[in-house]
Amino acid sequence: MRVRSCRDACREPQRLEPSMPGNDVPTAVREQYEELPYPLRDPRDEERRLIHTIGSNLVVVNHFCFKGRMDFRTGFRCLVAGGGTGDGLIYLAEQLRDFDAEIIYLDMSVASRRVAEERARVRGLSNITWVTGAIEDMQKLDLGEFDLIHCTGVLHHLESTENGLQDLAAALNEHGSMLLMLYGKYARRPVYDMQALLRAYLPEGIGRREKIEKVRQLIDCLPETNWFRRDLANWGHEISPGGNGDPGLYDLLLHACDQAFDVPGLYALAGSAGLHIQGFPVGSERYNPFSAIQDEAVREQFERMDLPMQQATAELLHCDISRHEFYVGRGTDSVASLDDEDNALLMFWKMYGKHRQLADAMLPGKVFTLQVDHHQIRINCSEILKHLFACMDGQIPLHEMYERVHQALPMASREAIRAELKGIYTVMHERGLLYLVMAGNLATGLPDYDRLNQVPGGDSAGVDPNTLKIDP
Ligand SMILES: C[S@@+](CC[C@H](N)C(=O)[O-])C[C@H]1O[C@@H](n2cnc3c(N)ncnc32)[C@H](O)[C@@H]1O
């Protein structure tokens, strides 16, 4: 066996050697997913839970991509590119189950497609068209144009992320949007250090299974000072047998092509395909420096920056964005706005359907803590807020909401009502708990979320009383 030199180990961190000698990167990537479909899923689990991802939820998609006005019932076309074992695909297909919508699954891995197909079969979903192929071949595949392209965890594994995005953009219709997920540069630093160590450590010419075994041996020996070991709480699920197991370990530490992005890199990438960033649906408070900084002088400094710069510095402030999930599209005005008073407000995620409970729990004059997952939101209760919360059902348009509050509290000026709403909207929306939707669209254009959320267990988004706490 050849002794490896320091030069071998010190190549660009993001581009690893193709995992089998003699293979080019696309072949190595395809072979990886044929042998180790990702994420690791057992189709039988579909009988007991539905995996629910925020960015693929149609309320959230509608808010960021279609101003809350999309009616998904007729002719909606969606491509899930690099659909893998089917998480985003299955969730979208479930939401669109009863509608005249078309969902196309595209992936170059036959083994991954088999898992996704079996999951769809277990669920009785028949609204998916299955295509085996590469994003780079989309033009030849002639799949038509789409309203939504879902492509998470894929483009950073292509030889050219830019070319891949352009291929996808060419298939987007005029008003269409994409959900992308790309790795985050700063939070993944310990991963890239570990990848560098493995490039130096692993002998050449061994197969995937042997590599995995050797990596597990090495992880067990990592000294306490090692960054990956220190950060293991963030990666444990990815590599543990109860999580993504061997496919997760290979994906994280041994991938043949793995590129990470910071916020300026995302803007540059979107711009290279003629697209605009429309929003970050997951953890958007981490793209906002003001969510972390209370000091007025420091806030003033951030106020001098434009939005992309604020987002870029917020990423560096927080340092914990390992995945950038974001929407891109051709339009700059796709996001639903409070200024459009035909919109209604809808409580979401673990707050879904809880607007009345929240209104009832409010004692005006008191400070009130809302705890949802790791978010703790302190709210100064007022009569205005109590009335506003009661109207956040996705049905009552904002203009009617303002009118109702004004009728109930004639002393409250319309400006004061709007200002209170804006404040609470900003805080709850950033934490993924409140969205705008065209009033009434929820009843006609979106599926029955109660039915979807009732599936217990797993990663399902049912309301868990242990993580939702309302403390008056
Ligand atoms: C990390 S998995 C992500 C799967 C899924 N999108 C998710 O978020 O769970 C990447 C998937 O992209 C597929 N893939 C990678 N490069 C591709 C390409 N150029 N064209 C089509 N599929 C590709 C792989 O086969 C694999 O199934």
Count of folded domains: 3
Give a list of the ligands. S-adenosylmethionine
N-C termini distance: 68 Å
Class by alpha and beta content: alpha/beta
Radius of gyration: 23 Å
Mean of the pLDDT scores?
89
| Largest sheet properties | 8 strands, mixed
Portion of residues in beta strands equals 15-25%
Tell me the name of the CATH class of the largest domain: Alpha Beta
The total strand number stands at 14
CATH topology of the largest domain: Rossmann fold
Q: What is the assigned CATH homologous superfamily of the largest domain? A: Vaccinia Virus protein VP39
Taken from the alpha-carbon principal axes, the silhouette is: globular
Count helical runs: 21
Low-confidence stretches: 1-21, 454-467
Mind explaining what this structure looks like?
- Helices cover 40% and strands 18% of the residues.
- The protein has 472 residues and is an alpha/beta fold.
- It has 3 domains: 6-36 and 187-253, no CATH class; 43-184 and 262-329, Rossmann fold, CATH 3.40.50.150; 343-471.
- Helix 4 links the parallel strand 1 (74-81) and strand 2.
- Helix 16 packs antiparallel against helix 17.
- The chain is globular and about 80 Å long.
- The protein starts with 5 loop residues before the first helix and ends with a strand.
- Residues 1-21 and 454-467 have low confidence and may be disordered.
- The chain binds S-adenosylmethionine (SAM).
